[in-house]
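Structure tokens please, single chain.
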Amino acid sequence: MPLKFYPFAIGARQSSANMHSTTTPLLSDPDNLQEQGRRMYSCVGQILHIVGGQIQPPLFQGSIVIVINFLLSQSRPHFLIARLIPTMGNNKKNNNLQAISKQPSNIKLGDDSPTPPTPPAVDIKSKEFSAETFKRLGMGSGITTYWQPATTAAFEINPEYPPVFEGIQNERIHETFFCRSQLTKTFVENHMAVGAARAYAQFVSADLHCKTTGSAECKAHEFIKYRSEADTIVKAKISLQRQNLLPKEDFKRAIEAALVQPTLDDRSSRLEVVFSKFGYFWPENLCLDRIFPGGKTTSWSKSADTASNSSRKGGQDVGGEFSLKQDLLGKFGGRIGANRERETSTSTDELAKAAVAAKTGGNIELESPAWERSVNDPNNWAIIRRDGVVPIWTLLDDELNKRVQDVIDDIFRLGLVSIESLYTIKHVHTKYFLNPRKWYYDENGAGRVVVAAPVLSGPTESSENTKWKFVPVRPGTGDMQKYLRYDTDNSHNYYIQPCGPKEKDMYLHASFTRDPPVTKKLKGENQKLDGQVSVRKITPGQNLPESDRWFIKRNNIPSDDNDDGQNIDLLMRKTDYVQKKDEFRLCCEAKNYLASHKVDMSSVKVKKAVRDGGESYKYEKRKLKDVEPFVCKFGEILMIPYQTPSETFHEMATWQLGM
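Here you go.
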């Protein structure tokens, strides 16, 4: 499958991350820290260790930590900077805590602020500067599927065609990201451009499943959403293309050793090990930035709200299980416990907030604005933006690139759904299968009854009765057109045919002029339901109406469908192709979604045409319980609107394919 190419940013960065906490203040006596003697109130959530611009877990050995405190008694904030300096080796007991107070970088300090030395004259367009910066910043490492720099470099500079930096830039970029898992928060913290999420989406399988509370009692649950505001002013750019790089021998040998394995599974497993070490992605473009003002500031906020099940509209925990190409390369972090923020009818209880500012690039020993001025020294720039993400193997020579791509494509196709095969359509919640019966609804012109049923066995039952075929409304050409696709632009829709021995020219149909067989309204809702689901015969040459055409929709939480375009979790789930383990929804092109639940269908009136002894037919009318011995095990099939409360909607409208 072809991959899209997207345009690696470097520079200095100042970021602040709002973390929620209920911890006690770090410093018990803040009064001595201000000459003005004004009392400060500090709520500090977490002290973080800063290494190379990355926020790490708490560490109290030789670290510089910067904590932003807001003076509740003043109209403008001040910064409280705590520096932890070891005095006797690594003995924590002998560490002295020194603290000073300062104002934000946008407030002018006195003349006594430290002044950095004048930056040396550097030609950033020179080959020497490129080579030194490439080595200093570890640009030869790819990015893993955990969105972190790989531990081992895969490339070195090609001395014949070395990359060079462009001249001084003044491009300004403002981005807002939403993240709902630690994995995608790491994506932003490692300066990945949003294009990387879009490019990656085509190779991500998202098996989303919702967990309800499992109790009728009213319980409190927390729903978390990370929001990031990033301002960047690009200082310089560099492009790292294939001609600028040479693969390191250990990387190349590892690839070649993986490709000579005897089976496809063995080759893919060995490649997984290689890419976990050297990286799966390669950002072709880097930008060198300076801090804001003039650079990058990233501000994180973590919001949470608490509400009971009875007052929350559709609240539930959601876990996203992401796998890269059917868990092929990197396993994409395994199972991710991601919480989804929901619309709620109760007020939001915000947690206590503390902010942590982290410096990237420049001389971090200096305080702002002296530190800001130090960033003008190109030797202090750090990687701040990675863009133009491509698979790392595309930078290998053509022959090796093709061999790796063939393995990737073969494994990827194993997880796709071919339109040439037959499938069961299983309701995820009830575990029952979409099943046509031989009786018709007792209404003029109505089609045959469709139920959700367990796989039945007996002299008149066959597993083929529960299988269906997806027929493209507009068949396409090309190798990838034979796989089932999600609807992304209202152009990929299907007819759904039952595949029993007597099902020729029969199609799944939704009639919106008829009522569901049993349920007229959903519990707690006033809106009347419309839409009777049946199978009906379509004669050759007859046009199939909208109510016979179906879209396959991703199993998003409904509120996500209208979420911000920079929602990283959502972008990484927007795959084009249905995979065998995916859960999805079936939407009739006319309107509404195919749904099911367990109900008593015993009293549904049905009929069947029988011969009257001659050539004519008459209808034999009965109740379903009189003709179906297993009617107690059937689930009702109906259509529900998209506006259904999200918990009910997810429970009723989620389906999965089986062989």
